[in-house]
DNA sequence: CGACTTTAGCAACGCTGTTGCGTTAGTACC
DNA sequence: GGTACTAACGCAACAGCGTTGCTAAAGTCG
């Protein structure tokens, strides 16, 4: 029965709108979604039933019957996000509105194993559940639909297979070849787990918080390396082998300095050899303009611990480059900003990916083509 | 009534499948689409009714009742594509299968005006309609649904506003500032018209012919400039201002030679100064690897008159670069090929964009957000 | 207090895909 | 030559989505 797709899609549309604006009304929702007022009534009723929305009084128009006003219940659904780096595990608890409600950092042992990570992850998740009195999703949702923990998201460095939830081999971590991390974590935690690359998770955080106007964008991150999480056409772009975002290994200087990846003049290699933050920022800015030329993005968000240390310098350098290096017609508007989530972006984004799979816009089912060759 | 979306979506799914495989059966379609056999029966019946499919005998299984076999009727729908360059107008007629059935080239006057283009376009379209006895779409499709011309696609250099169908200002053509070309052509021709950037149209041609396995790909074109049409996640990527694909103006050599665009070391500038085709191909290949690092594409298609002149040299250079410059794990497979459509890619793609809007996968309606500031 | 405006919501409906089940067209076996 | 079996077909009833039509509700205005 594929009518379920329509229902989920329209519910997701309303939730997306509710995240963006303070209050909702039947009329305005109908206008924005293109649904009839009657249909909106039904959708709103379902969402109130599920506890995602609540009535918020009435608006009295100059003439006529008062309109019922609704608003999102941010505390009705929660998600936990984990950011795994080579040194530490950062956990974040977010609500349905995308607000970070708690965060915690645990150091990880040198060259840690999957089991070591899973143990610390389970510890942290258990603590968060207890501290915030979260409900785990009930099989047949008869129970109280509030404070429900939707699942756990994990953002980490690649390469990894996002669809399968498998880490192919984290750079400079020996125990991480073909680890089915999502599956292992689901078993250990008893919760749905979503795995993704760090920067892709990060850009999801920005998208979830900014709403539908954020259609084509990149989160450019500098943190012991350079990467760019891509949000294209209103969805995360992961690529053919879910390995997109290795933006730092694009060459910006032919015959430039040798990079760890074996090529010469990668953005990352040139960037890390810059004399000072201003020069480094200028190099990154050129890379960002390259991205804009190729992809025509509307928003550039900057993040990552190393970048945020000199955040304003980077932001200004990128904004300047955008203004001066792009064929600056009036219609080519690009918004450049620093992430409002600081060093929590990736963890927060991982959490929001969980919310996004459940309460975001679903993809219509495509063709399940028989796979020909092996991977 | 949004059930129409489901219907169109499933019909488009079946058409996409029919384009890819020689014959269809109820059972296999059901398996691939996830629909029940009954639903597939209804979809197939509708498509036969519309003339898009026809019965093609039966397949006799080892046991049981023979299965009804269907196939696409390529001649049931047609589209005309136009490729506008600074020197000439290239017209192409394609059928529903994406096969080029006719093509014609007309020179254009120096610094031609919109009217001059429209006149030649109308001439060419009229000739093609007459020569191939095409039907124009009937308002209320009671008539014979065969040999229907779905519309006309136009591919040309930007910048342009694809959604509005407006040319913002074609490079080095003085009479082309804010010309509502799609609207003008629709009036002149009495047919639906779709406008898009040349390389974006081109990649649509490849996608339409290759089917759903072609999910993340680029058409890299060298033709008095370097560009890349992007096909991401199964759809054309146009970007926030429908200005994506200016890949040639990504910097690959900081402090390199001055480019026409004002920056230094653009791929295009470095490429055109290369000593010989082999060196030029190597430069382009590096750019392609940059694209792969950032976007993780599964297919790279090469095209454009200047590139195809030394096609094999370019193809080998790119393939070599992909093998040696990417972190060559076994799972990172990239298929590199020359376009099978030669210099007709863009025109053919423009035609297929028309077919794609009518018979391709529809986008679910999003939120019609009120626009805030002016452009 | 009645006319008017705006919003809400019940009830019937249309259309989609689904389910259940009988039918059809063939092979295999005795 | 009949019976069992298999695989695909297709009618009919159904469920669930949004839509349409209409009535009711809750205000303001004169």
Strand content of chain A: 15-25%
**What string gives the helices and strands of chain A in order?**
HEHHEEEEEHEEEEHEHEEEHHEHHEH
Q: Quaternary status of these chains? A: homodimer
Instruction: Calculate the mean pLDDT score of chain A and round it.
Output: 93
Radius of gyration of chain A: 22 Å
Terminal residue distance of chain A: 32 Å
Class by alpha and beta content of chain A:
alpha/beta
Instruction: Characterize the main sheet of chain A.
Output: 5 strands, mixed
The gist of it:
Chain A is an alpha/beta fold. Chain A contains eleven helices and 16 strands. In chain A, strand 5 and strand 6 (100-107) form a beta hairpin.
Note down, in words, how this protein is organized.
Two copies of one chain form a homodimer. Chain A starts with a helix and ends in a 16-residue tail after the last helix. In chain A, the strands form four sheets. A five-stranded mixed sheet of chain A has the order 6-5-4-7-11, sandwiched between helices. In chain A, strands 14-13-12-15-16 form a five-stranded mixed sheet, with helices on both faces. Chain A has a three-stranded antiparallel sheet with strand order 1-3-2. In chain A, helix 2 (26-33) crosses helix 3 and helix 6 (198-210) crosses helix 11. In chain A, a hairpin with a 4-residue loop joins strand 8 and strand 9 (166-169). Helices cover 37% and strands 23% of the residues of chain A. Chain A has 375 residues and is an alpha/beta fold. The model of chain A has no long low-confidence stretch (mean pLDDT 93). Chain A is globular, with a radius of gyration of 22 Å. At the A-B interface, helix 1, helix 2, strand 13 and helix 8 of A face helix 1, helix 2, strand 13 and helix 8 of B. The structure holds a DNA duplex (30 and 30 nucleotides). Chains A, B: It comes from Amycolatopsis heterodermiae. Chains A, B: Pfam families: ROK. Chains A, B: Belongs to the ROK (NagC/XylR) family. Chains A, B: This is ROK family transcriptional regulator.
């Amino acid at each position: 029965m594929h009518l379920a797709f329509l229902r989920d899609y329209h519910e997701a549309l309303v939730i997306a709108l509710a995240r963006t604006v303070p209050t909702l009304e039947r009329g305005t929702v109908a206008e924005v979604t293109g649904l009839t007022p009657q249909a909106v009534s039904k959708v709103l009723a379902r969402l109130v039933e599920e506890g995602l929305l609540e009535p918020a009084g009435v608006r009295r128009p100059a003439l006529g019957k008062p309109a019922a006003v609704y608003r999102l219940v941010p505390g009705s659904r929660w998600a936990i996000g984990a950011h795994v780096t080579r040194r530490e595990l950062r956990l974040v608890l977010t609500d349905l509105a995308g607000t970070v409600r708690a965060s915690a950092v645990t150091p990880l042992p040198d060259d840690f194993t999957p089991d070591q990570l899973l143990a610390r992850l389970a510890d942290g998740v258990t603590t968060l559940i207890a501290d915030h009195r979260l409900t785990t999703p009930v099989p047949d949702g008869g129970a109280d639909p509030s404070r429900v923990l939707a699942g756990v998201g994990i953002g980490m460095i690649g390469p990894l297979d996002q669809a399968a939830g498998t880490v192919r081999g984290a750079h400079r971590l020996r125990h991480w070849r073909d680890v089915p991390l999502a599956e292992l974590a689901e078993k250990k935690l008893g919760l749905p787990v979503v795995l993704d690359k760090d920067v892709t998770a990060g850009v999801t955080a920005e998208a979830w918080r900014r709403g539908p106007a954020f259609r084509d964008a990149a989160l450019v991150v500098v943190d012991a390396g350079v990467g760019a999480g891509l949000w294209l056409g209103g969805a995360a772009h992961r690529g053919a082998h879910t390995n997109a975002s290795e933006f730092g290994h694009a060459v910006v200087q032919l015959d430039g300095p040798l990079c760890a990846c074996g090529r010469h003049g990668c953005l990352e290699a040139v960037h890390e050899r810059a004399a000072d933050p201003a020069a480094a920022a200028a190099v990154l800015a050129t890379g960002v303009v390259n991205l804009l030329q190729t992809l025509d993005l509307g928003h550039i968000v900057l993040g990552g611990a190393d970048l945020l240390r000199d955040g304003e310098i980077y932001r200004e350098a990128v904004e300047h480059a955008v203004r001066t290096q792009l064929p600056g017609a009036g219609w080519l508007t690009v918004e450049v900003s620093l992430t409002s989530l600081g060093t929590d972006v990736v963890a927060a984004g991982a959490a929001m990916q969980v919310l996004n799979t459940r309460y975001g816009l679903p993809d219509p089912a495509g063709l399940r083509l028989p796979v020909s060759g092996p991977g």
